[in-house]
Amino acid sequence: MNLRTLYLPHRLRTVDFKEDSENPLIGEIQQLLVNQEFYQGPIHNKYDIETIRAVALFQEKEHLPTTGMVDPLTYCHLQQARITTIKSLPSSKRADFSLPRANILITESSRQLSLFNGNTPVRQYPVGIGKSSTPTPLGDYSIVYKMMNPGGMLGTRWLGLNLDSYGIHGTNQPWLIGTMVSHGCIRMHNSNVEELFSLVKVGTPVYIRN
């Protein structure tokens, strides 16, 4: 199994730029885009329209929301990860605390995530959902990726869905749980998402309803 490890040169909370803003970190991002042949302009530390266009092209290639703005997830994708090959333990030797028939229901109107084992409710957690301009998409999905300690605005756990870059994750702004605040992802208190993380596995169904 290959393990991807990222060592970020800057904290994710510093990655937040508006059009025409200037910052030395923008120059580093421009250089990363040059390295991947998405940007051909000068390295001038300014978030101009040419840089925005290059970021949008990169996001499209990485199947991320094409906003042209460098959010923490886009910044992580820009960085080169170190690949380490590790040997997995046999399944018989791994501790598995996941529920055998786990499924998740997210109800936007009540800002609530409910965990079921089959038809039996097991846990209920408050969540934050997408803003009116970037709503959380309704539908039937599943968990396809689990990550520990993504950091920054993603908190301590990430549960990726089979829909672009949407997922269920923790937060570094717990006071916003229960509100419409995200770009479409589902935010949870870190302690809650850590518990949920241990109870579900890749393939767990996720139903998002109004």
What does this structure look like?
- The protein has helices at 24-35, 49-61, 72-78, 190-199; strands at residues 2-5, 82-85, 102-107, 112-117, 120-126, 129-130, 139-148, 157-161, 167-169, 180-182, 186-187, 205-209.
- Helices cover 20% and strands 27% of the residues.
- The N and C termini lie far apart (38 Å).
- The protein contains four helices and twelve strands; from the N terminus they run βαααββββββββββαβ.
- The chain has 210 residues and is α/β, with parallel strands linked by helices.
- It is globular.
- The strands form three sheets. An eight-stranded mixed beta sheet has the order 5-4-3-12-7-8-9-11, covered by helices on one side. The protein has a two-stranded antiparallel sheet with strand order 1-2. It has a two-stranded parallel ribbon with strand order 6-10.
Question: How do you describe this structure in short?
Answer:
With 210 residues, this protein is of the alpha/beta class. 20% of the residues lie in helices and 27% in strands. The chain is built from 4 helices and 12 strands, in the order βαααββββββββββαβ.
Q: How many distinct helices?
A: 4
Q: List the strand order in the largest sheet.
A: 5-4-3-12-7-8-9-11
Overall shape: it is globular
**Multimerization state:** single chain
What average pLDDT do the residues reach?
87
Largest sheet, strands/sense/barrel? 8 strands, mixed
Q: SSE string, helix = H, strand = E? A: EHHHEEEEEEEEEEHE
Unreliable spans are none
State the distance separating the first and last CA atoms. Answer: 38 Å
Helix proportion: 10-25%
Structural class: alpha/beta
